[in-house]
Write a structure and sequence with these properties.
Shape of chain A: elongated
Binding site for Mn(2+) (chains A, B, C, D): 100, 102, 136, 163
Largest interface: A-D, 43 and 43 residues
Domain Peptidase M20 dimerisation (chains A, B, C, D): 182-280
Distance between the termini of chain A: 22 Å
Structural class of chain A: alpha+beta
Cofactor (chains A, B, C, D): Mn(2+)
Oligomer: homotetramer
Helix content of chain A: 25-40%
Low-confidence stretches of chain A: none
CATH class of the largest domain in chain A: Alpha Beta
InterPro entries (chains A, B, C, D): Amidohydrolase, Bact_exopeptidase_dim_dom, Peptidase_M20, Peptidase_M20_dimer
Protein name (chains A, B, C, D): Glutamate--cysteine ligase 2-3
Number of strands of chain A: 18
Chain lengths: 404, 404, 404, 404
């Protein structure tokens, strides 16, 4: 392998960029892809980069990496720790860190392209390398699609990708069917009519309306979703009023919805909308509630057949012990948008990035949750080796399974 | 007085009749009125009787008595106790008793007409004696109005009437403004969609809908009615389902609303309708709730000026100690329909019917509620004397105040 | 096979008996077992029968069948349809039908014992054949244990059994881990203090208490059980009050709980108890709620290793197509009590009993739920052949896997 | 009258002081009282001042004024508007205004003492003039009592006082029995256990607990207080959580309770405490809720007999049109503490301070609420004349009624 993976990684890690601001990262990516001989298009969906490696007849495989960092102050103490800052959507100056490991994803995908180029005599078909912006906002993949991704690059036969996590380095987590949660963040504004606390009859009390909505929302999971399905409706915040004797004019709820199939997700969203509208009507509210979706990830559903096929390739390459079903993952991913837009199967796996000994010790002690920093933690720090090499190989193995 | 009040009373008491079945009673009334020389019309609003005593120029005064008994098994042990039976609206054979004292009302009004006829030289004007059916159903007064009461008889200048209660015999309870509660009985059917208890997601659970409605209904009095107003919303019954593991198709609530002004009553009714509709919408109910009004009494509001005038006449006749403000009365009356239809003032008072010594003893002991049988009790038994004479005199005094 | 399975089956089907009244059935069973040379004990746990077939050294295998019918009026139109009647626990005369297929279970277990006896030269060990009463009440298995089952018969190394269902005849449904739901029927009495509907302040309103409890119970599944677990809390009935203007003294709820692990079941029960107690305290209730458990099935959890071993034997005998994972089953079974008391693995499977062509047609049409009568239906009618033979063979194959 | 009321008033109005910081005001008061020949004690209960005017044998009458201003930025535009600032209990620098008219109360009481001194030959007895701090906090009157008020001054036979309001200047509002509301401000902290929004089963969700508490609190007024009583329970604020997908550890409610009798107030407080405790138990909360009382005004109940006597004196002095029953007042007052500590009757009245023409116009237009600035408004500005003179005369008339 000609590329120095560690050098690429530590540079990216030192210089993380927030969603849709991945200009430096995209430049590095584009330079490497160009150098490797791919046809490159940048600025897709803002800062996305697409490289096409056409290598004769055969299937087309899309490999995807995401590029953005998070507004987190790094606390790893690593020599290559980030001190970068960025500008949040609110215009605030914030620290930035690759706290979710997208630097691993970029590095491994560059490495995989490098390997596939080097080995191009042994396969035929087309590889589309997609480096997307703004996964953390849940919108980057769709932004690339909307900006003509599949006009700039051939429509693939399969979409493949990976996410580094605190599983033991050298292992892969792969699960057929629903894998990552669909997640929606909703803000619900409930409108009443304020007034003096001693004269509720002149008001429409939004505090009572909010309470009734919250109680009713409990019925969504309890009554409207099959017990064998997996769904969560959490009201994480409720705020109304400033003073005990003044009835405020409105209340605001923050909701988090989780689901693992589009059907359940639609049912959750419809139920929330129906309930807040019905409760507002029951309250005689002077205005309909406002339901705003802050972010929205659809559930990631790995295609069962394609996952079985890819999993078999992994087991052949890494042994049976190297691949495990990690169960349902509560995190979310926007990669499904790439497969959905193309109408093709998706296979997305977890790439182990944790020191296996540390993992084993924490597992034995029952302290995985507390001892192992997970994604989004200021202390999240993948073990570089063999994680980077393994991530490259996983992409190559998976891609080769689908190429001729 | 030519009439034997006690004989009339004991005969009526022995032979009570249910609402709209007061045929025998109406016959007795009509015979007496005819004998006294009044112009009589019977069958008004079913079994109602109207007698008009025209006595020259002057104001017209309407005096009202109600005639119906109740489906109660008498337990007074009196020699003239009822053993009568009747047919309930459901077609059931039931015992009947004058448990609410309407026999007193009829007797006293006949006595008052007798007295006014005897004394006709001393006054001028017109007296309209109205004996109405079905006060217990809340519909008899309106039925007479709808059946042309004010075509058969002149429109009055004031409506007067009385109700016997367990105040001390010889006293009168009179209150300006809101006096008797408006009362509405509502049946609310909430529609869901039934199914197996293990699969709530295939259903719309009417049990949860009913619970949410009940909780929400608490906000009507707590939030929508001024603290200085008087209102009650009681859900007296809730029924749904037959088996713990079958989600039923519907739930039924029985509601009782009480209020003392038309404005509050309207607000209660509107709030109930709004809440059940809103909650059904929040539940995704397959059909709108059905709200049926079983009976409906408007609040009895005594005209303040007319009440002051009548009260002054009572005090002149019976002394200051003989007239008291009984406070708000939780019972209901349908006599307001007679005044409302005529657009004239109403003055309606309580006629004491309890043995004063027994009353005093129970009052002193704090056992009024338990020791003194009140209206609708199987043991309700007014003290005949002086109650009958006093009831006659109260009607005459009040009528004379308004006649020339 | 010496036994005439069809004759035994049709006789049992014609003569179903209610729970704990399986006297005739038990007699037939005991006669057959005795004739087959087993050591037999009857009257265990009421009407249970145990037969022990000791055949040299080796493991002990318990094979279980349940014997009771249901109070259902048969509507199959079969020549051997039941016209039997029985006496319900309430003392009522009711129709009886083998609507849940326990006649299949008894017949097959007799057939399996017959086959094992005939073939005893080829295996060694001990077979314990348990014919239990009252599975439908959820108490028969425990009743046999409590009555000394494991004193009368050797403690087994594994408990095996089967349930006929509308899967295609000739197939077996087997699932490792949680399989049949734990189910509890609870009656909750909530105590308030009654009074007149116009004076709620003199009462503790049990209708409002019931509503608050119902709303709160929604939070059990929504908040207290992991989204990845399977649980249902249904309030199938709520009853309080007789009249809209009388606040009743109590309210009664009927609850159905479902779960698939003992941990979740315990959590559900604890949450229900905690919520009704807390809500009663919040209401100022004059007495603590009464929570009565009507029936209680623990979840049936197939031992993963034993199930894998048994499933392998099935696949070897019937082919891969003959064994499928039926998913979580919402029905319940009391057989776990036999394994729990012995502290040994349980393997319990579904025995297909439906005409495969009819099944396939309904499956294709998406009308399985409506077209195929399932257990407890008045039209439930297993296809006799090959169901009976297959049920015998399944028991024999499973038993032989565990015997030497 | 020797004192220049307008000069005193405008000086006080220009120099308002916050609760317990009424040093300048107290100095002015003490100087005047001393000059008028009273025995003066200052620093009672912090900044309170007491002057005793002993004038021979006879009853003792306590006249009370309160001295503190409010943290309001004056917007009256008056030449004597305040530009003063003060330090809030939180240590913040805030504007200060006599927005509640306590400057009127001080001025009028000084004027009344002046008049009583001038006219001392015509009466005998003792007048105790109490100028109290911190009425706005609800604690100043009690602070003076606790600091020995009735050791420094003779225990009175009656407590008299007045509050300026936007009734027409020249009129008095007086109501026997319950007059000003009892008011309590409560902060309720509900404790749960936080966690990730996708794993509610690891948490005790305080948002749901808060909602259930709010719904339950609606039942206090709806079910626990008689419909004929007057009470309000308002949850004016609810706050929990910061992010939609994080379940917070606690929730905080701000409650305002209002009542007009000690019995109702006690019932409200007990119900709130019972409900939050019960709901926390129902939720399985890890800690009991904290209920903190922020301020607490008892209801002001005018002694019926003493009020009748004082009212008769007012009517004799000012005519029947000059005195009216203002109905229940939703505001609160801490003056009852002075009467309660002495165990004597209280008579407290409203002093009209609004331009009668402006009042009449707003009343006719139905815009009293919007057009007439009321107490605590930045635009509150009593009409100086005849308000000051009338306030002096009302105190003198009332005091003389009770003095010999």
């Amino acid at each position: 392998m000609a590329l120095d993976l560690e050098a690429i990684y530590t540079d990216l890690h030192r210089n993380p960029e927030l969603s849709y601001a991945e200009h430096r990262t995209a430049g590095i990516v584009a330079d490497h892809l160009t150098a490797l001989g791919l046809e490159v298009r940048d600025g897709v969906g803002g800062t996305g980069v697409v490289g096409v490696l056409a290598n004769g007849d055969g299937p087309t495989v899309l490999l995807r990496a995401d590029m953005d960092g998070l507004p987190v102050q790094e606390e790893t103490g690593l020599p290559y720790a980030s001190t970068a800052r960025g500008t949040s959507p609110d215009g605030e100056d914030v620290p930035v860190m690759h706290a979710c490991g997208h630097d691993v994803h970029v590095t491994c995908l560059l490495g995989a392209v490098d390997a596939l180029v080097a080995d191009r005599a042994s396969w035929s078909g087309t590889v589309v390398a997609v480096f997307q912006p703004a996964e953390e906002l849940g919108t980057g993949a769709q932004a690339m699609v909307d900006d003509g991704l599949y006009e700039h690059a051939p429509r693939p036969d399969v979409v493949l990708g990976q996410h580094v996590t605190p599983l033991p380095a050298g292992t892969i987590g792969l699960r057929p069917g629903p894998s990552f949660a669909g997640a929606d963040a909703l803000t619900v504004r409930l409108f009443g009519r304020g007034g003096h606390g001693s004269r509720p009859e002149t008001t429409v009390d939004p505090v009572v309306l909010a309470a009734s909505v919250i109680m009713r929302l409990q019925t969504v999971v309890a009554r409207e979703i099959a017990a064998t399905e997996t769904a969560v409706v959490t009201v994480g915040s409720v705020h109304a009023g400033t003073k005990e004797n003044i009835i405020p004019g409105e209340a605001t709820l923050g909701l988090s919805l989780r689901s693992y199939t589009p059907e359940v997700r639609e049912r959750l969203l419809a139920a929330v909308r129906r309930i807040v509208a019905g409760e507002a009507a029951a309250a005689g509210a002077p205005a309909e509630p406002e339901v705003t979706i802050g972010y929205s990830f659809q559930a990631l559903v790995n295609d069962p057949d394609a996952t079985a096929r890819t999993g078999a390739a992994f087991r052949a390459a890494f042994g049976d012990q190297g691949v495990a079903d990690p169960g349902l993952i509560t995190g979310s991913e926007d990669v499904p948008a790439l497969a959905a837009a193309a109408g093709v199967p998706l296979v997305y796996w977890l790439l182990g990035g944790e020191d296996p000994q540390r993992f084993a010790a924490a597992f034995a002690a029952g302290t995985l949750d507390s001892d192992i920093p997970s994604n989004h933690s200021p202390s999240f720090a993948p073990q570089l080796h063999p994680t980077l090499e393994h991530g490259v190989e996983a992409l190559v193995v998976a891609a080769r399974e689908w190429l001729d």
